Amino acid sequence: MQNIKNIIFDYGNVIFNIDFTRVQAAWAKLGVTNAADFYGHRQQDPVFNLLERGEISNADFRTRIRQLANKQELTDEQIDTAWNSIFLDIPEGNHELLLKVKAKYRTFLLSNINAIHYDYVHNYLKKNYNLDGNEPFFEKIYYSHLVGKRKPAADIFEQVLLENNLNTAETLFIDDSPQHIATAKELGIQTFLMTAPDTIQAFFKREGLV
Predict the structure, then answer these.
(1) Is the pTM of this model over 0.85?
(2) Cβ(20)–Cβ(187) under 8 Å?
(3) 50 pairs with which residues across the strands?
(4) Segment 60-88, tens digit of pLDDT
(5) 134 with 98: CB under 8 angstroms?
(6) What is the rounded distance in angstroms from the CA atom of residue 21 to the CA atom of residue 2?
(7) Distances in Å between the alpha carbon of 158 and those of 14, 35, 77, 120?
(8) What is the CA radius of gyration of the chain?
(9) Whole-angstrom Cα distance, residue 167 to residue 147?
């Protein structure tokens, strides 16, 4: 890691712990077959890409889940609860670290997210930290469903770089998905693939970045 001036963070399993197996189990419980293929770390049903780009409504998403589960009686609450079961917690010290990093670097959040998860995260932040969002920790935030683009497509990375006049050679991208890291590397961005049980706190200490 050399000459780093800008850091772009992913959110899930970088800042906020998530568990794909939990949500897969929740989908299966609702009646979705092949839940691991339906939604996973490296592959997912096209409906999720549409949701994460903001191209379909929450209602359209829920309709698709009912179709896949062959259960028209599923309530919105049942579907949202299953979908939100992916979230675990924010490790103690992560927010403090982000503030330290922001004081030294230009920092950005780049997250594949959707309206349902967006609401869940904001409610969680308000309830547990009295925060209205992640804005205190970053210069600018890019949520996929609000910008209409999602990783690993290059255009969302290019938007972050262009809008903020970032030099790729001076920019570090931290993410837990190899396919997202691959795109960043192709654009000349320095990268770090977050892999459990590693943490951002351990990474920044190890690399001497703060």
Answers:
(1) yes
(2) no
(3) none
(4) 999 999 988 888 999 999 999 999 999 99
(5) no
(6) 36
(7) 21, 33, 36, 28
(8) 17
(9) 21
